[in-house]
Amino acid sequence: MSDLNDYNNTPRKPSASLWFELKQAIKGTESDYTKIGIRKAIFLLSVPMILELVMESTFAVVDIYFVGKLGASAVATVGLTETYLFLLYSVAMGLAVAVTAIIARRVGEKKRREAGYTAVQAIFIGLLISLPFAIAGIFYAQELLALMGADEWSIEYGYRYTQWMLGSNAVIVLLFVINAIYRGAGDAAIAMKVLWIANGINILLDPILIFGFGPIPAFGIEGAAIATTIGRGTGVAIQLWILFRGGKHIRISRSQIAWSSAIIRNIIKRSLGGVGQMLVAMTSWIFLMRILADIGSEAVAGATIALRIMLFTLMPAWGFSNAAATLVGQNLGANQPDRAESSVWKTGIYNMYFMVSVSVIYFLFYEQLMSFFTADPDVIYIGGEWIRILSYSYFVYGWWMVSVQSFNGAGDTMTPTKINLVFFWLIQIPLCWYLAIPLDWQHSGVFWGVFVSETSVGLFTLWLFTRGKWKSVNV
Questions:
Q1: What pLDDT digit, counting tens, does each position of 233-253 carry?
Q2: What phi-psi label fits residue 296: left (phi over 0), alpha (psi between -120 and 50 degrees) or beta?
Q3: Domain locations in the chain as residue ranges
């Protein structure tokens, strides 16, 4: 033991210290994030969160890479199905926002058993909200695609992809919710490892089930959905096993598996704002996809591929932002509001540097990025244009991501909801429609409308954060 203490107290070179902290971050640590240095806390939380989300976005990119070989209609089917999945994501992510905030607050207050009870109730809620999406997907997949303006191929052949994705959505919801539990508790490394396993399985199965291998038949686009279900289902099983076995900061016992109306009411109350902000943002995307569907399948395919590329590069930024949310929640729970605010500003600076570097890559290599996923020149042109246009706003967008997650981490989920309602529904949708249809800018109108609205919402959210009312929210 003395040797270990000697090692911990021995000064190390900066490179050695960084390597040691990196291993700690990936392995997981029992550090108290309300007491250690802010820079170190950001590093230990953000590294596994970034790696977790990078793997998630890697899956999205690989998935669309293989589906892209089936043609523009197959890619469009994925994009149109995701418009409905975005509704599911809005509910699951909204629930996850509340769960992270509540778990972080309980852990900051050193109330670990209450955190465990909250985790159980969150899982119950996740299972309940998955049911209506599953029923709709299993029985009305073709009608849902037709409603979004899908072409004949998608409705006749692609609907099985929609059936699988919506019908098995419980694994998606639980993956979101349980990883939110780990992140709020400070067990970000567990969330990272689970997602790596889940999406690693998915990536391996994708080409096998889509194109066939040996005795395994080619399922086409349906194979992509089957691979997703198997991979994420495996991830959920691992999550639950670890949750009961015990992480470094949270554990559930069998005695806690019971319905608690009081805790559920608190989670739902906090979730309403989170669900609202996600729902507003996601439904605005549905309207945009509907506008693009009227323009043509190439516009939908180009936007779908561009979105996957953007999600891939945005994941590290969301990792920083999620780290800020956990630090805000735990430090407010420990009655350290100034430390919570300082964590946000430092995280925002790191995120800004990252986003600026990404925007340079987008601006210079947008065509090459699109060409990796499709050979269709129209799809390349349309998707490349969107990537280039949005690169102009990434400096502001990086600050918006951190500030909005800070509101969420504090438990103030209603403020981002109101902001999203104004900027996405009242500004973005009408502006994109007006530029694309009446002014006949086509897909370019949609892209420029998104640029204007998202730059504006970023500046406004950051200004609102500086007013500091989020520090007084009770969870």
A1: 999 999 999 888 866 778 888
A2: left
A3: 30-472
